[in-house]
Amino acid sequence: MSLKTKKKVSIFWFRRDLRLHDNAGLYHALKSGYPVVPLFIFDKIILDDLSANDPRLTFIYQEIESIQSQLQELGADIMVEYGKPEEIWERLAATLDIAEAYTNSDYEPYAIERDTKVGKILESSGATLKAYKDQVIFEKKEVMTGQNTVYTVYTPYSRAWKEKLNDFYLSSYPNKKYFGNFLHWKSSSIPSLKSMGFEKSDLEFPSRQTPDEKVEHYAENRDFPAKDATSRLGLHLRFGTISIRKLAREAQQLSPTYLNELIWREFYQQVLWNFPHVGRGKSFKPAFDHIRWSYDQELFKKWCDGQTGYPMVDAGMRQLNAIGFMHNRLRMLTASFLSKHLLIDWRLGEAYFAEKLLDYDMAANNGGWQWSVGSGNDAAPYFRIFSPDAQQKRFDPNMEYIKRWVPEFGTSAYPEPIVDHKEARDRCLAAYKRALDTDKK
């Protein structure tokens, strides 16, 4: 840490909100009356679980460098630390005169635990940690039923979400007006990726700019994975390099279907907040924890590698492994196939997606997996089991997507199906029925 100042300061802690504009917590920090010192922590507790070539670290690093460049044009800078957040905040509290610390809310179990500890550290030095809503339009218990209970099914939640929406919730924070309130100083260099044990990735990251016409035609094109028809903005939403308020305003104007997808994202965030057990490896519906899952490592590896003999499933997995992205239609199909065709514990698949997806978000990933398994927030019955062949005929009729990712399909080099669809379906239904019957006893 190179900052030395006798001034009383406010600190703004960047996490999953990597932008200077329309940033709620930063706006409040800049209006605090104290000069603002931006901070980013490469959290060792999180990073220790990642592989050395994880491309998300390169993406975050590039965004921090961009923020630093923008701040330096203003005569300001950013403090970038690597370590355990509690230890870093203890050091900051001991060496700086911190009036207040600001950040934006994170709803994941680890983040809540971490922020509670950091808040106590700051309180012991006479400061406070203030968190604001920034990554969603509505959070926690803002959208409730008429009986003042939490929504657990998407459709009524989405209706109530839209009824509550108005221009106030969609308006941007005018951060730029207060940029003069950053502390003027110059930081030392950002810790290198190599010093933190990571390699620079050459993967091409999706743009944060999406043509209006793509969003306008989202409804009719989004289910066909061979088409370049989705926004690919999940990565930017995950790390806050774009504003959800700006995106929701555009979706409201251009595509009700796209807006619905943004609402799904918020639905799962409020589920994670209100039912934190889903973020700790438990089914939303406890009965499904009675299912006797398989842990067949050979079958799991074939699923991971895209070698199941079901080309639509394999294409999705190969796309994920190659570029860190999978079309949403394929996320549903591959998750269903692992949990229902192979009867392999969905938590293994959830963890694999968490490792590979550039846009990995705990709430959305967990919600999507539990939806596919039937254990989550879904009004549909558990016995919905996707047929990979039927999905291919409907959504990739000319096999363009399959040919792109499984070029050997149709040759002797392509494997036979590792499981028979009808047999797998019958086995799944029997296993689920046993589990649900057990729960009733």
From TrEMBL:
Q: What protein name applies here?
A: Deoxyribodipyrimidine photo-lyase
Query: Which PROSITE patterns does the UniProt record give?
Result: DNA_PHOTOLYASES_1_1, DNA_PHOTOLYASES_1_2, PHR_CRY_ALPHA_BETA
- Keyword tags: Chromophore, FAD, Flavoprotein
Boundaries of every Photolyase/cryptochrome alpha/beta domain copy: 8-137
Essential cofactor(s):
(6R)-5,10-methylene-5,6,7,8-tetrahydrofolate; FAD
Claim: Flavoprotein is one of the keywords in the record:
yes
Family matches, as InterPro entries: Crypto/Photolyase_FAD-like_sf (IPR036134), Crypto/Photolyase_N_sf (IPR036155), Cryptochr/Photolyase_FAD-bd (IPR005101), Cryptochrome/DNA_photolyase_1 (IPR002081), DNA_photolyase_1_CS_C (IPR018394), DNA_photolyase_N (IPR006050), Rossmann-like_a/b/a_fold (IPR014729)
Q: Hey, which family's this protein in? A: Belongs to the DNA photolyase family.
Q: Does the keyword Flavoprotein apply?
A: yes
- Could you tell me which PANTHER family the record lists for this protein? CRYPTOCHROME, CRYPTOCHROME CIRCADIAN CLOCK 5 ISOFORM X1
